[in-house]
Amino acid sequence: MYTKEHLLQLVQMTMPFGKYQGKRICDIPEEYLLWMQKKGFPQGHLGDLLAMMLEIRIHGVEDVLQPLKKAYPAKLIQPEAKGTH
Q1: Assuming Cys at both sites, which of 6, 33, 47, 72 could form a disulfide with 2, CB separation 3.0 to 4.6 Å?
Q2: What does the radius of gyration of the chain's CA atoms come to, in whole angstroms?
C-alpha cells in the first residue's frame, strides 16, 4: 500500500539520469517506465519509486497525484541513484 509520503516523493523527486533527467518521477511517461522495467529498475529507493509510478500508471490512478503536484510545484529533489543497470 502506498502512503502519502510515497506519493509526495513521486511528485517531489526528479529523475537523476537518462532521457528524463530532471523530470519529476510522476511525469515520466509510461512507455519509458515499461522500458526501464524490462531493462531492470535501478536498485534501491529510486527503483522502488519508478516501479510504484509504473503501477500507478498501469492502473490508471495517476489523477491522485494532481493535487500534490499543484501543492508542491517547486520542491524538487533528486534521489540517490545506486546500482543503476
Answers
A1: 6
A2: 12
Q: How many CB atoms lie within 10 A of CB 28?
A: 22
Q: What is the DSSP string of 4-38?
A: HHHHHHHHHBB--SSTTTTSBGGGS-HHHHHHHHH
CB atoms < 10 A from the CB of 60, how many?
7
Distance CA 3, CA 16 (A): 23
Cα(57)–Cα(13) distance, integer angstroms = 17
**pLDDT one-digit tens code per residue, 27-56:** 999 999 999 999 999 999 999 999 999 999
The pTM of this model reads 0.83
Average pLDDT, the chain: 88
